[in-house]
């Protein structure tokens, strides 16, 4: 899927606000309508592992980011390549402004499939967002978990460290080492608060009373294997990728060390020769550019490995969460059975 | 000596050619004679001339026929031809406009009119004519009257002075050209005068000049003497035509023409003299021939003359008349001919002719078999020599000649027990004379036969296998076998063991790939269907198996060269495999240990090995040894180059990988079409074997992370099948197998069966086996068994217990078979179950891990390998720095990190880094 890009006018307009944030955003407050819109968007357009995306609109108020509206990116296939997303976004925001709705770009949202979202594409597009609009976040909506009864919506942004690295585009092992960044410190989650108007709250209470038990308790579903299998499958794929990356890195470091050795030998030989020449009174051999003779092998970019690690971590968290919940449910079920 | 003479003759020919040139040129100073130099005219106006020549020739031809018709008073023909003539004349109008109306045309018109008038007046004669002729006469007369009105002036001029007018024409014509060519002439004369060097430089031209001159003189000679029938006679019979044309001139031609003809005559004479001189030289020294040949190439124009003379006149006079033909003379002659062999420019066909003639003479004079054998050897050798390029194949007729010759040679050898032949008999110690002692002749008939056989292969390689020609050529294989058989008989009595081995191998090579139908039929207990006597003969012959056995065993025992033995073993195995003697074939293959060192053999042997392995695999398949079949075919099929490996065709590759030279070599290795192994059959056998092995395996190891593939090729086919967006009914053999595999995966043996064995597959594959029915039965059985296994693997988790009766009904297998299959599976721990004897049921233990558990196991395994890899990275880092700097540091480093708990892996492998 194509990932949203920030367009320039917006970036320019926000440039003034960027960097002038007195305090970083500590909390995100989402309008209930935004949540419903996102869920509806997925319901209508997403299926299976397909993801849906859209733009978040809102404002920064003190240390919290209020997301008050959103609109989806239209799905488009390869066929209509001339579809201009930027144009569409501009149009959309202009129209919203006309009806006096918050029109400031504050990030984007994306659905996820079993918690797989940590990817290069997401990183790049979130970086470009954050680069242009400092407070922007990405909302990750997990429809599967939501389907099981608990709404899963998480807001992420890149850590300042990762922003630095992305700015420098230095993904070599050394660069990452210097930055001292691990997969844990790549994304930071921002706590979310869903706010509804009082009227809506009242409506909710009413609805709660009206709904049947069956509607409410899908979170008591005991079946687990399907979800776990899927998660494991995905986890395994990532682990495979990881293994590959490690093997790649392994060869790289072996080559590097081999070359180091050669270089060392060469230097020693040169030294010896020079010593001999000196004793014979001959001029020393000219110093050559050693780096030219021994071109260091291209180091494999490590960013992907980091991302994979992050993703693996994510899966693990998911599985852990899921199993702990399920375990609780199972105990509950057992207790119930014993009681009967 | 020969060399000396040869050069002598060369210089002579130069002289004579120079003489040719000078003869016409010397008198070229005067205008009158310059007109004879029509070659100059030709030089300057060549294009026009040729067009004119063509047209005029057409005209003269027509005129000739008209005159003939006139002679026999065939008016109808005359009319027809006249009409044609008029048309032709119209066509050549362009030229006529330029050159004026040719005199011969006018002459004909005048003559024809006179003649017609004469006929018309001859009332009696007219009455005698038949209706057709009379009618034609009147029409023609009217026509020519009308036509001649246009040429009235010319005709009257001609009638007044018939000869002169003709000459004038000529003179005018020639004069025109002569004046234009005068300057050229002068130049030429100057050149002649300048120096010998300049002349020499011009030498190569002189010959063509001369020939041109002669040619053109012929043309004008014709035009002047229209009744000259002998058009092309000049070249073939120089003197004759000269005299003839001068005879036929008969005063019609003017004095000029006579002069002209005389001149040509003179030059002819000189040429003639030269030819005769040559003849003389040749008679004296035959060896000179090759040098002469080289000379010829320079001279060009003379080649034909000499060749004709040499061939036609030389042959009967191989020996001077009156020479007593005895052995030394013949031998000397033979050597003479032989010396020319292989030299550039030697006419190889002529050489063969010479040999044949010599053989005929020898036979005629009863010089004994010895010399005849020797000549025969040489004939065959020169037949082989006929093709200068070893890569090219012999012409089939040449090859047939060779075949006959070998046959004759063998006849002689069989007839006469007194002849010893061998390649190690020295030339000097040959005994060709008829005497008490046996003949001794140098030469190796085995080599000749081998070469003949190779040529046969080459012919087959180069014939389109789908043509009738191929079939015709293949019919000759019988003859080849016959010769080899005869040779075998001969060598068995006279040859050394080595030679016997070689000829045995030849015999084996012609036997091993043929299926012995009569033995097959006999073993089935069917009466031999003898359609003809030949069939009967064949069926009475020895079984090929017995022959193979005898020949091969001899080679195993006696052969000293490794190659022959290897080939013999491979052929023997192939033959065994072809006739379904699987165990013999397999044992021989294993005992020979050929698999270990075949990669060191030369490519043809490797191809033979590949063929043998394939045949072995197919044999195993027929016998129901699916696993063996698969293993035998795996190497060939997995490469995807079966066609190339079996020598049955070249793979399309770009030219970078293979240049033209390599391609030629590869082409030479190809196996002739009639020996091919059907590639589709091969692939089908392989895929079906793979299916029977792989599908149960896949079912059994569905969740195994480290599942390896048995057959990559088969998986590839499956994937291709899956990729198909729309799955129609299977068409090709592969699609059938893929479809069958899918059915088998579900344990549906009936569908699988119908996909593997149906009409399409029968016609494509299964009917190619000699024991089709048996193979099919075996196949059905295997499909049932493997389907049962697959079914149990796939669905055992669904069952608590299953009755063997049900299984037996489902798969149409007897209960004992089902029982044995299930028992085997239980023993091998493939199926977690137990058999309940009294109720005849299989009780599942349900201990197989669930899919989630399987996945978790897989994940654990993967993580294990991940950790391993990670450790390796870490070790590398540590090892490198430790080794690079110094040991102490490493120790402290290790101590520092001693708290780390690392897997056993590192401890094991620590020493490696």
UniProtKB/TrEMBL annotation, chain A:
Residues 28-162 form the MPN domain. Residues 270-303 are annotated as: Disordered. The keyword Cytoplasm applies. Its main location: cytoplasm. CDD domains: MPN_eIF3h. It comes from the Eukaryota. Pfam families: eIF3h_C, JAB. It is found in: Cytoplasm. Component of the eukaryotic translation initiation factor 3 (eIF-3) complex, which is required for several steps in the initiation of protein synthesis. The eIF-3 complex associates with the 40S ribosome and facilitates the recruitment of eIF-1, eIF-1A, eIF-2:GTP:methionyl-tRNAi and eIF-5 to form the 43S pre-initiation complex (43S PIC). The eIF-3 complex stimulates mRNA recruitment to the 43S PIC and scanning of the mRNA for AUG recognition. Component of the eukaryotic translation initiation factor 3 (eIF-3) complex, which is composed of 13 subunits: EIF3A, EIF3B, EIF3C, EIF3D, EIF3E, EIF3F, EIF3G, EIF3H, EIF3I, EIF3J, EIF3K, EIF3L and EIF3M. This is Eukaryotic translation initiation factor 3 subunit H. The gene is eif3h.
From TrEMBL, chain B:
GO terms for molecular function: RNA binding; translation initiation factor activity; translation initiation factor binding. Belongs to the eIF-3 subunit C family. Residues 903-913 have a biased composition (Low complexity). One of its GO terms (cellular component) is eukaryotic 48S preinitiation complex. InterPro entries: EIF3C, EIF3C_N_dom, EIF3CL_C, PCI_dom, WH_DNA-bd_sf. Keywords: Cytoplasm, Initiation factor, Phosphoprotein, Protein biosynthesis. Component of the eukaryotic translation initiation factor 3 (eIF-3) complex, which is required for several steps in the initiation of protein synthesis. The eIF-3 complex associates with the 40S ribosome and facilitates the recruitment of eIF-1, eIF-1A, eIF-2:GTP:methionyl-tRNAi and eIF-5 to form the 43S pre-initiation complex (43S PIC). The eIF-3 complex stimulates mRNA recruitment to the 43S PIC and scanning of the mRNA for AUG recognition. Component of the eukaryotic translation initiation factor 3 (eIF-3) complex, which is involved in protein synthesis of a specialized repertoire of mRNAs and, together with other initiation factors, stimulates binding of mRNA and methionyl-tRNAi to the 40S ribosome. The eIF-3 complex specifically targets and initiates translation of a subset of mRNAs involved in cell proliferation. One of its GO terms (biological process) is formation of cytoplasmic translation initiation complex. Its main location: cytoplasm. Pfam families: eIF-3c_N (PF05470), EIF3CL_C (PF26569), PCI (PF01399). Residues 182-193, 287-300 have a biased composition (Acidic residues). Residues 673-849 form the PCI domain. Component of the eukaryotic translation initiation factor 3 (eIF-3) complex, which is composed of 13 subunits: EIF3A, EIF3B, EIF3C, EIF3D, EIF3E, EIF3F, EIF3G, EIF3H, EIF3I, EIF3J, EIF3K, EIF3L and EIF3M. It is found in: Cytoplasm. Residues 1-35, 154-253, 267-300, 892-913 are annotated as: Disordered. This is Eukaryotic translation initiation factor 3 subunit C. It comes from the Eukaryota. PANTHER family: EUKARYOTIC TRANSLATION INITATION FACTOR 3, SUBUNIT 8 EIF3S8 -RELATED (PTHR13937), EUKARYOTIC TRANSLATION INITIATION FACTOR 3 SUBUNIT C-RELATED (PTHR13937:SF0). SMART domains: PINT.
């Amino acid at each position: 899927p194509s990932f949203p890009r920030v367009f320039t006018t917006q970036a320019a307009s926000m440039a003034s606000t960027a960097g002038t944030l007195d305090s970083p955003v500590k909390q995100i407050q989402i309008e209930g309508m935004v949540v419903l819109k996102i869920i509806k968007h997925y319901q209508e357009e997403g299926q299976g592992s397909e993801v849906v995306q859209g733009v978040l609109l809102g404002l920064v108020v003190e240390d919290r980011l209020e997301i008050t509206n959103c609109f989806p990116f239209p799905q488009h296939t390869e066929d209509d390549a001339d579809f201009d997303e930027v144009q569409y976004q501009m149009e959309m925001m202009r129209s919203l402004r006309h009806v006096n709705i918050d029109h400031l770009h504050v990030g984007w949202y994306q659905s996820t499939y079993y918690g797989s979202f940590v990817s290069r594409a997401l990183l790049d597009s979130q970086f470009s967002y954050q680069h242009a609009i400092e407070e922007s976040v990405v909302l990750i909506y997990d429809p599967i978990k939501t389907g099981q009864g608990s709404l899963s919506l998480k807001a992420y942004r890149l850590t300042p460290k990762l922003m630095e690295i992305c700015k420098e585009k230095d993904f070599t092992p050394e660069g990452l080492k210097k930055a001292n960044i691990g997969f844990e410190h790549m994304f930071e989650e921002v706590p979310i608060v869903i706010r509804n108007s009082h009227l809506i709250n009242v409506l909710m209470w009413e609805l709660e009373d009206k709904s049947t038990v069956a509607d409410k308790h899908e979170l008591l579903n005991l079946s687990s294997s399907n979800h776990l299998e899927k998660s494991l499958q995905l986890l395994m794929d990532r682990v495979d990728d990881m293994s590959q990356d490690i093997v790649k890195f392994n060869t790289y470091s072996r080559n590097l060390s081999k070359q180091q050795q050669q270089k060392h030998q060469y230097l020693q030989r040169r030294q010896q020769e020079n010593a001999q020449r000196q004793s014979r009174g001959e001029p020393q051999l000219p110093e050559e550019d050693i780096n030219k003779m021994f071109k260091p092998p291209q180091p494999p970019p490590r960013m992907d490995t980091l991302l994979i690690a992050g993703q693996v971590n994510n899966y693990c968290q998911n599985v852990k969460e899921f199993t702990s919940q399920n375990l609780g449910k199972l105990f509950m079920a057992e207790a119930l059975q014993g009681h009967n | 000596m020969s060399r000396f003479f040869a050069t002598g003759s060369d210089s002579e020919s130069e002289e004579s050619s120079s003489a040719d040139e000078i003869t016409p040129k010397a008198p070229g100073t005067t205008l009158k004679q310059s007109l004879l130099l029509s070659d100059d005219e030709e030089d300057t106006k060549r294009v026009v001339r040729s067009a004119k020549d063509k047209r005029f020739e057409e005209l003269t031809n027509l005129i000739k026929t008209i005159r003939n018709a006139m002679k026999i008073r065939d008016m109808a023909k005359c009319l027809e031809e006249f009409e044609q003539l008029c048309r032709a004349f119209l066509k050549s109008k362009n030229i006529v406009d330029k050159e004026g109306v040719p005199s011969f045309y006018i002459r004909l018109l005048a003559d024809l009119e006179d003649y017609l008038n004469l006929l018309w007046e001859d009332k009696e004669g007219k009455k005698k004519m038949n209706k057709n002729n009379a009618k034609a006469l009147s029409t023609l007369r009217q026509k020519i009257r009308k036509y001649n009105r246009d040429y009235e002036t010319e005709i009257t001029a001609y009638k007044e002075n018939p000869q002169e007018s003709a000459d004038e024409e000529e003179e005018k014509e020639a004069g025109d050209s002569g004046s234009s060519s005068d300057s050229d002439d002068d130049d030429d004369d100057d050149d002649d005068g300048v120096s010998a060097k300049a002349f020499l430089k011009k030498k190569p031209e002189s010959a063509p000049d001369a020939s041109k001159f002669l040619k053109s003189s012929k043309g004008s000679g014709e035009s002047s003497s229209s009744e000259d029938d002998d058009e092309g006679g000049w070249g073939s019979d120089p003197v004759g035509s000269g005299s003839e044309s001068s005879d036929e001139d008969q005063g019609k031609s003017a004095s000029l023409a006579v002069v002209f003809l005389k001149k040509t005559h003179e030059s002819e004479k000189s040429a003639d003299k030269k030819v005769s001189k040559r003849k003389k030289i040749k008679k004296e020294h035959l060896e000179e021939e090759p040098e002469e040949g080289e000379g010829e190439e320079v001279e060009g124009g003379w080649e034909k003359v000499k060749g004709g003379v040499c061939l036609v006149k030389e042959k009967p006079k191989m020996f001077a008349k009156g020479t007593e033909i005895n052995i030394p003379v013949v031998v000397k002659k033979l050597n003479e001919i032989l010396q020319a062999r292989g030299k550039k420019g030697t006419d190889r066909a002529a050489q063969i002719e010479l040999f044949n003639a010599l053989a005929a003479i020898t036979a005629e004079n009863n010089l004994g078999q010895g010399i005849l054998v020797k000549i025969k050897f040489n004939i065959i050798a020169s037949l082989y020599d006929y093709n200068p390029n070893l890569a090219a194949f012999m012409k089939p007729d040449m090859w047939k000649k060779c075949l006959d010759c070998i046959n004759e040679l063998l006849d002689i050898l069989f007839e006469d027990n007194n002849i010893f032949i061998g390649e190690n008999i020295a030339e000097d110690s040959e005994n060709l004379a008829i005497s008490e002692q046996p003949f001794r002749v140098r030469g190796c008939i085995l080599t000749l036969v081998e070469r003949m056989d190779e040529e046969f292969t080459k012919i087959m390689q180069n014939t389109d296998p789908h043509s009738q020609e191929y079939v015709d050529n293949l019919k000759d294989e019988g003859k080849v076998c016959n010769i080899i058989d005869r040779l075998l008989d001969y060598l068995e009595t006279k040859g050394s063991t080595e030679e016997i081995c070689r000829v045995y191998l030849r015999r084996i090579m012609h036997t091993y790939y043929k299926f012995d139908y009569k033995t097959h039929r006999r073993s089935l207990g069917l009466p031999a269907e003898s359609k003809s006597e030949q069939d009967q003969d064949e069926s009475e012959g020895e079984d090929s198996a017995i022959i193979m056995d005898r020949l091969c065993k001899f080679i195993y025992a006696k052969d000293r060269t490794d190659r022959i033995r290897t080939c013999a073993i491979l052929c023997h195995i192939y033959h065994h495999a072809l006739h379904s003697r699987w165990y013999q074939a397999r044992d021989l293959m294993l005992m020979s240990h050929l698999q270990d060192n075949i990669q060191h053999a030369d490519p043809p042997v490797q191809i033979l090995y590949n063929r043998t392995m394939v045949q072995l695999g197919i044999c195993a398949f027929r016998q129901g040894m699916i696993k063996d079949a698969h293993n035998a075919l795996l190497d060939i099929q997995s490469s995807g180059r079966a066609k190339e490996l079996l020598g049955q065709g070249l793979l399309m590759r770009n030219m970078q990988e293979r240049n033209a030279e390599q391609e030629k070599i590869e082409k030479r290795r190809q196996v002739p079409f009639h020996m091919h192994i059907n590639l589709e059959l091969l692939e089908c056998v392989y895929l079906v074997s793979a299916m029977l092995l792989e599908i149960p395996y896949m079912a059994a190891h569905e969740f195994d992370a480290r599942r390896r593939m048995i057959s990559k090729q088969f998986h590839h086919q499956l994937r291709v099948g899956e990729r198909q967006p729309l799955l129609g009914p299977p068409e090709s053999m592969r699609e059938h197998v893929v479809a069958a595999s899918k059915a088998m995966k579900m344990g549906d043996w009936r569908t699988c069966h119908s996909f593997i064995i149906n009409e399409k597959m029968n016609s494509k594959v299964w009917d190619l086996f000699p024991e089709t029915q048996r193979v099919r039965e075996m196949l059905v059985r295997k499909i049932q068994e493997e389907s049962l296994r697959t079914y149990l693997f796939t669905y055992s988790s669904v069952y608590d217990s299953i009755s063997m009766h049900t299984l037996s009904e489902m798969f149409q297998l007897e209960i004992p078979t089902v029982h044995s299959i299930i028992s085997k599976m239980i023993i091998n721990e493939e199926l977690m179950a137990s058999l309940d004897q009294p109720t005849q049921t299989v009780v599942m233990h349900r201990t197989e891990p669930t899919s989630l558990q399987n996945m978790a196991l897989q994940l654990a395994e993967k993580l294990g390998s991940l950790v391993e890899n990670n450790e390796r990275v870490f070790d590398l880092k540590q090892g490198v720095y430790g080794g690079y700097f110094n040991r102490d540091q490493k120790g402290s480093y290790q101590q520092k990190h001693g708290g780390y708990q690392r897997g056993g892996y590192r401890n094991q492998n620590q020493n490696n880094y």
